[in-house]
UniProtKB/TrEMBL annotation:
Membrane-spanning parts: none
Pathway: Amino-acid biosynthesis; L-proline biosynthesis; L-glutamate 5-semialdehyde from L-ornithine: step 1/1
NCBIfam families recorded: Orn_aminotrans
Keyword Transferase: yes
Coiled-coil stretches: none
Enzyme Commission number(s): 2.6.1.13
Cofactor entry: pyridoxal 5'-phosphate
The encoding gene: rocD
Record-given protein name: ornithine aminotransferase
SUPFAM superfamilies in UniProt: PLP-dependent transferases (SSF53383)
Amino acid sequence: MIEDMLRTPSAVRDAERYTAHNYHPLPVVISSAEGAWLTDVDGRRYLDCLAGYSALNFGHRHPTLIRAAHEQLDRLTLTSRAFIHDQFADFCRELAALCGKDLVLPMNTGAEAVETGIKVARKWGYQVKGVTPGQANIIVADGNFHGRTTTIVSFSTDDDARADFGPYTPGFTVVPYGDLAALEAAIDENTVAVLLEPIQGEQGVVLPPDGYLPGVRRVCTDRNVLFVADEIQSGLGRTGRTFACEHEGVVPDLYLLGKALGGGIVPVSAVAGNADVLGVLKPGQHGSTFGGNPLACAVATEVVRLLATGDFQRRSTELGERLRAGLEGLLGKGLVAVRVRGLWAGVDIDPTLMTGRQACERLMERGVLAKDTHGSTIRLAPPLVITADEIDHAVAQLAAVLAA
Ligand SMILES: Cc1ncc(COP(=O)(O)O)c(C=O)c1O
C-alpha cells in the first residue's frame, strides 16, 4: 500500500511520543522550504499561509538573509553583551532609524520584549513620573496575546493560557479592546503604561475601531502614560506598513518587536523607544545572554534593510487587496466574517459547517497550510513574497473546503 510507504505517520507519532503536548500541530512533517512553499518528508508541497505566525514575513530562506547568516556563522556567533561585537552598532542604529526612535534594546523572543517593555514602563513610572514605589499599574486589553511568561499570562483573558499558572503577577488592569472611554476611566495616578496590540492577531486578526489608536495616543499623552505597542505579530510589513500603528498615524512610546525581525532564521526581538524612556535602564538592571548576539544582529540588520526599501510593505498592501477581494467573495458561501489588513486575514467560518481546525485539516489535504485560532476562526498570514496567483490558489482551496 502506498500509505504504508509514507514517512509522515511515523514521524508524527515520534514527535508526539517525545514531547510535552503544549501544541496540537497539524499532522504534517516539513523537511524543506523555499519562499512561500514547504515540502514534507514525503515530498508533498504546501503553500504556507501562516508564515510562522509572521516570523517568516520575507519567506523561507530569503537569499539575502541566508547569505548574511552563512557569512556570520563563518566568523562569529556569540560574545554575550559582556563585550561589544562588530555587528551590534549597525543593527541598533538601523533599527532605531526604522522605528524613528533614539534607542533599541535587543532581546530574543517576543515574550522577552514584552517583559522588557513592562519593566521599562514600571521603572519609568517610578523614576520619571513619580509613582509611589510598588504601585505601578499597566492597562491592557481583553483578548490580548502578549506571550507565555507567568507575568504575561497573569493578564491574559484566555483561560487556556492563564488557568492554573497562578499565583498571578499584580499590577495590570484589563479593559475591553476598542473601548476608549473604559481605558480612560481606568487610568489613575499609578498608571504607567497602556500595553496594546494595534491589531489582535491571536484573537483572530481583530482590527481596532477607527479612531481608537489615535484616541489611546491622545489619552496617554494627556495623562502622562506610556503607550506601548506590541507590534510583534502586526509589525514589520505584515499589514502593508512597517508598523500597524501607522495606518492611523499613531506613534507609540515603545515598540515591541519580534518574530519577523529574525528573518525566520534566529529568534530576535527588540524594544525601541526614546532615550527619556529606554534610558531609565542602567547596567545590571536588565539583560539576556543571547540578546543582540552577532548572528542575530547580522540577520536582523538585513531584515531592517529589506524593510527600509518599502518593497515588502507595498507588496503587502497590493496583494492584501487581492486577498481581501477573494475572501470577501466567500462571504455567505461558508464565511460569516472577514477581517483583512495587508496580507493578514482573520476569517470566521460558519460554525455550523466546521471548526477552524477542521478547515485547516482540509486545507492541508489540499496543499495549503493555515492555522485556526479560536473556534471557527482561521488566520491567513502568508509570507509577503507570495504571488497574486498563489493567493488566488489559496482562496480557491478555501472555497473548495467550504463548499465540500
Ligand atoms: C502580539 C504578540 N506578542 C507577543 C508574542 C510572543 O512572542 P514569542 O512567542 O516569540 O515569545 C506573540 C506571539 O505570538 C504575539 O503574537
